[in-house]
């Protein structure tokens, strides 16, 4: 059985090696016998991808592998680059999910993680004038649409927010040390946490994605 993970740089594992991406860590855990399931894991994350770009390669990079399930994590770049609002971004996600389902593949959405706005303004595309607080609002809007969609989903948005808050003393989720390398991408420890959340979800939902 195959599981495809497709999306942007967070799926790709930027700025670390593919082996340190969360799909790579899931693959290692499977190979080491540390999961309650067996599957081949395929990482199809591409740095900088928007949902428009992901839609163009979805057939080749997801459907053509004939996986049991495809996990789709994207959307953040739509808001950073201003190529789409939450409704339009979700429409692209739904096209992908529909194509997967028509091919007998179970689609699973992963809600995008929020950004650390002050850190991103200093370290990610600094000086570009991006309103990262607005990016966060759009990420949260998209995440809420996904939650209400009726599709299978992993709420990585909520999970990573809780993880980030656990690393700080204050209540403000936008001032998070250690959870982010550059305000947008997780640290190595952050990718490990995402892998853990996904493994737990798969173990609890293996029958829904044809692993049982």
The ordered H/E elements are EHHEHEHHEHHEHH
Name the CATH superfamily classification.
Answer: SGNH hydrolase
Radius of gyration: 16 Å
Alpha-beta content class: alpha/beta
What is the name of the CATH architecture? 3-Layer(aba) Sandwich
Strand order across the largest sheet: 2-1-3-4-5
Count of helical regions: 9
Please describe the biggest sheet, giving its number of strands, its sense, and whether it closes into a barrel. Answer: 5 strands, parallel
Number of domains: 1
Overall outline: globular
Assess the beta-strand content as a share of residues: 5-15%
Q: What are the low-pLDDT stretches, counting only 5+ consecutive residues below 50?
A: none
The CATH class is: Alpha Beta
Count all strands and give the number. Answer: 5
Please name the CATH topology: Rossmann fold
Estimate percent helicity: 40-55%
Measure the end-to-end span.
10 Å
- Summed over residues and divided by their number, the pLDDT gives a mean of 93
Note down, in words, how this protein is organized:
This protein is of the alpha/beta class. The protein has a single domain, classed as 3-Layer(aba) Sandwich (Rossmann fold), CATH 3.40.50. The chain has 9 helices and 5 strands. It has helices at 9-12, 22-31, 51-61, 76-81, 86-102, 117-123, 132-147, 156-166, 188-204, and strands at 2-7, 40-45, 69-73, 106-110, 152-154. It has a 5-stranded parallel β-sheet with strand order 2-1-3-4-5, with helices on both faces. The longest helix is centred in the middle third of the chain and has 17 residues, at 86-102. The mean pLDDT is 93.
């Amino acid at each position: 059985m195959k599981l495809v993970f497709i999306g942007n740089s967070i799926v790709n594992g930027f700025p670390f090696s593919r082996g340190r991406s969360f799909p790579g860590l899931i693959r290692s855990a499977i190979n080491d016998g540390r999961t309650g399931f067996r599957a081949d894991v395929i990482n199809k994350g591409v740095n900088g991808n928007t949902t428009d770009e992901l839609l163009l390669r979805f057939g080749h990079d997801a459907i053509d592998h004939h996986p049991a399930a495809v996990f789709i994590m994207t959307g953040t770049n739509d808001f950073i680059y201003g190529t789409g609002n939450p409704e339009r971004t979700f429409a692209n996600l739904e096209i992908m999910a529909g194509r997967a389902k028509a091919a007998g593949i179970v689609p699973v959405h992963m809600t995008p993680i929020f950004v650390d706005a002050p850190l991103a303004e200093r370290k990610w595309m600094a000086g570009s004038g991006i309103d990262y607080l607005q990016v966060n609002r759009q990420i949260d809007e998209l995440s809420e649409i996904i939650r209400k969609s009726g599709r299978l989903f992993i709420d990585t948005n909520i999970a990573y927010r809780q993880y980030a808050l656990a690393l700080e003393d204050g209540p403000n989720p936008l001032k998070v040390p250690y959870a982010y390398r550059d305000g947008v991408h997780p640290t190595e420890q952050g990718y490990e946490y995402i892998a853990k959340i996904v493994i737990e979800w798969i173990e609890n939902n293996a029958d829904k994605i044809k692993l049982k």
